[in-house]
Design a protein that fits this description.
With 124 residues, the chain is α+β, with helices and mostly antiparallel strands. The protein has five helices and three strands; from the N terminus they run H-E-E-E-H-H-H-H. A hairpin with a 4-residue loop joins strand 1 and strand 2.
């Protein structure tokens, strides 16, 4: 049984920002076919800041916790600040993840970055 920090367990049991944003400014989706985790992030941007962020995640408890943490880390930050959030930042913010679950932190940051890229592409 993998050991999870209290913060991981809290974000798993009480995920923040779950849902979907209709007419989102950006949508990013990633998946890992090996473990079956799928994450979709939706963002609303106002004055170059993430005004709202929601996610839908199909996956393990770590994937849900990662999605919740990533959404909190992004809220209120500028688009450029959010692009600097790394997979390592997410894992550290959660108090660490077991080695076999680190791929989940990669998915969270990647999905959020894809949502921002989608937003930027739509602006062009």
């Amino acid at each position: 049984m993998a050991f999870y920090s209290e913060k991981v367990m809290d974000h798993f049991a009480n995920p923040r920002n779950v849902g979907e944003i209709k007419n989102a400014d950006g949508i990013g989706e990633v998946g890992n076919p090996v473990c079956g985790d799928m994450m979709t992030f939706y963002i609303k941007v106002k004055d170059n800041k993430i005004e709202d962020v929601k996610f839908k995640t199909f996956g393990c408890g770590a994937a849900i916790a990662v999605s919740s943490m990533v959404s909190e880390m992004a809220l209120g930050k500028t688009v450029d600040e959010v692009l600097k959030i790394t997979n390592d930042d997410v894992a550290k913010a959660l108090g660490g993840l077991p080695p076999n679950k680190l791929h989940c932190s990669n998915l969270g940051a990647d999905a959020l970055h894809k949502a921002i890229q989608d937003y930027k592409n739509k602006k062009k």
